[in-house]
C-alpha cells in the first residue's frame, strides 16, 4: 500500500485518513495540505476526525513534522480530536508522543469505530453531515 492521506472538511470538522507507511516527504505534503485546508474551515473552533486504520506507521523523521502540524492546528482553533483505530500499542505510543506538547489545549479521544467518534464529536458540539445521518 502506498503512503497517502485524504483531508476534507465537513462543517466544523476536518476529516483525515492516514494511509500506508509515511516518509518525511509524505508528512511534508500533508503539512502543506493542512495549511491549505484549515483556513477554509468556517468556524473559529474546529475538530479533527482522524482515521489511522490504514496507517502503517512512519519513519522517525515524520514525528517533528507531525508535532509541528498539530501545534499549528491548535493555534488555528482545533480544540477536539477523535482518533479512530483498532487497538495497537505501537500506534497508541506514537500518537501519544505526537500530541504530548498540546495535550493541555485539545481534548483527544480514541475510538475503534468512526460512528462512535462522530457521535462523540456531535456531543462536543461538532456536528457533521455524517453524524446527522447516524442519529436514526
Descriptive notes:
- By secondary structure, the chain is α/β, with parallel strands linked by helices.
- It is built from 5 helices and 5 strands; from the N terminus they run E-E-H-E-H-E-H-E-H-H.
- It has helices at 24-37, 62-76, 89-99, 114-123, 129-134, and strands at 4-10, 13-22, 46-58, 78-84, 107-111.
- Strand 3 (46-58), helix 2 and strand 4 (78-84) form a beta-alpha-beta unit.
- The chain starts with a strand and ends with a helix.
β-strand number: 5
Radius of gyration, whole Å: 14 Å
* Share of helix, binned: 40-55%
The largest pleated sheet is described as: 5 strands, mixed
The first-to-last residue Cα distance is 35 Å
| Number of continuous helical runs | 5
Report the structural category: alpha/beta
- Strand percentage lies at 25-35%
Mean pLDDT: 91
H and E string: EEHEHEHEHH
- Low-pLDDT segments: 131-136
Strand line-up of the largest beta sheet:
1-2-3-4-5
The gross shape turns out to be: globular
SSE arrangement:
Layout: E1 4-10, E2 13-22, H1 24-37, E3 46-58, H2 62-76, E4 78-84, H3 89-99, E5 107-111, H4 114-123, H5 129-134
Parallel strand pairs: 2-3, 3-4, 4-5
Antiparallel strand pairs: 1-2
Amino acid at each position: 500500500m502506498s503512503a497517502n492521506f485524504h483531508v476534507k472538511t465537513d462543517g466544523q470538522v476536518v476529516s483525515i485518513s492516514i494511509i500506508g507507511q509515511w516518509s518525511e516527504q509524505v508528512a511534508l505534503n500533508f503539512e502543506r495540505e493542512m495549511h491549505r485546508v484549515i483556513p477554509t474551515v468556517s468556524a473559529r473552533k474546529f475538530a479533527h476526525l482522524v482515521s489511522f486504520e490504514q496507517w502503517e506507521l512512519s519513519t522517525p523523521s515524520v514525528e517533528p513534522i507531525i508535532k509541528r502540524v498539530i501545534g499549528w492546528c491548535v493555534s488555528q482553533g482545533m480544540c477536539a480530536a477523535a482518533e479512530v483505530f483498532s487497538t495497537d500499542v505501537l500506534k497508541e505510543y506514537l500518537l501519544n508522543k505526537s500530541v504530548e506538547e498540546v495535550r493541555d489545549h485539545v481534548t483527544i479521544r480514541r475510538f475503534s469505530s468512526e460512528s462512535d467518534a462522530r457521535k462523540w464529536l456531535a456531543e462536543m458540539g461538532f456536528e457533521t453531515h455524517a453524524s446527522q445521518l447516524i442519529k436514526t
